Amino acid sequence: MPATTIHLVRHGEVFNPNHVLYERLPDFHLSSRGVRMAQATARYIAAHSGLNHAAAVYSSPLDRTRETAGEILKALNSVREERGEQPLELTTDERVIEAGNEFRGKRIGHGDGALWRPENLRLIRNLHKPSWGESYDHIGQRMSDFVYEKVGEYPGEQVIVVSHESPIYSFRHLMETGSAEHWMWKRHTALASVTSFTFDSETRELLAVAYADPAAGVQ
């Protein structure tokens, strides 16, 4: 029975000294610690006998995910070169992008442009079903469309996908409970973590979910 594993990797820490809710805004890059986190996860992937045989690497088109994926590709392609294999290239896909959010550009804090102003708080009506942006159901569905497409494209293979906290956890919650809706405070998706979903390549039945946090000790 061939199995396909889709590894959803969260990007590393972002340089954000002004505490902006950056959502899908451009020019938010990894911090120096974020780069080290991405490198730690890249080393973990390169050393893992299954992961380092990945057939493809995908990411969201945003800066922070592409930079994280770049570190992973450097480590993977070094191993592939030693084995005499062709290097992998990054493919971006809009379906694994960060959640849409009406608060993008707001700051966590006080003063003009701060999130906690009355006109902004009026949008927060139900934390379980976001009223301020893209619903968890929609996030889960687009992630599901992407993942099942790749299960079909790469039977028996490993695929690495660099995405964001909300899409990764919404998809996991959908797979484990049948619903993408969840409490954001209960997410278990650390920076640069790897959440892996293994499917029967023929029936597309979910066989296992695994989680690793290779960058937990990065300072």
Q: What is the spatial order of strands in the main beta sheet?
A: 3-2-4-1-5-6
End-to-end Cα distance: 42 Å
Low-confidence stretches are 110-117
The percent range for helix content is 25-40%
Summarize the structure.
This protein has 219 residues and is of the alpha/beta class.
Keywords:
about 220 residues, alpha/beta, Rossmann fold, six-stranded mixed sheet, 5 helices, 6 strands, about 30% helix, phosphatase activity, PGM_Phosphatase, His_Pase_superF_clade-1, Phosphoglycerate mutase, His_PPase_superfam
What does this entry look like structurally?
The chain is of the alpha/beta class. The protein has a single domain (3-100, 134-212), classed as 3-Layer(aba) Sandwich (Rossmann fold), CATH 3.40.50.1240. It has 5 helices and 6 strands, in the order E-H-E-H-E-H-H-E-H-E-E. It has helices spanning 32-47, 63-82, 118-121, 136-153, 165-177; strands spanning 3-10, 56-59, 90-92, 158-163, 194-200, 206-212. A 6-stranded mixed beta sheet has the order 3-2-4-1-5-6. It is globular. Mean pLDDT is 90; it is low at 110-117. This is Phosphoglycerate mutase. It comes from Bifidobacterium callimiconis. InterPro entries: His_Pase_superF_clade-1, His_PPase_superfam, PGM_Phosphatase. One of its GO terms (molecular function) is phosphatase activity. Pfam families: His_Phos_1.
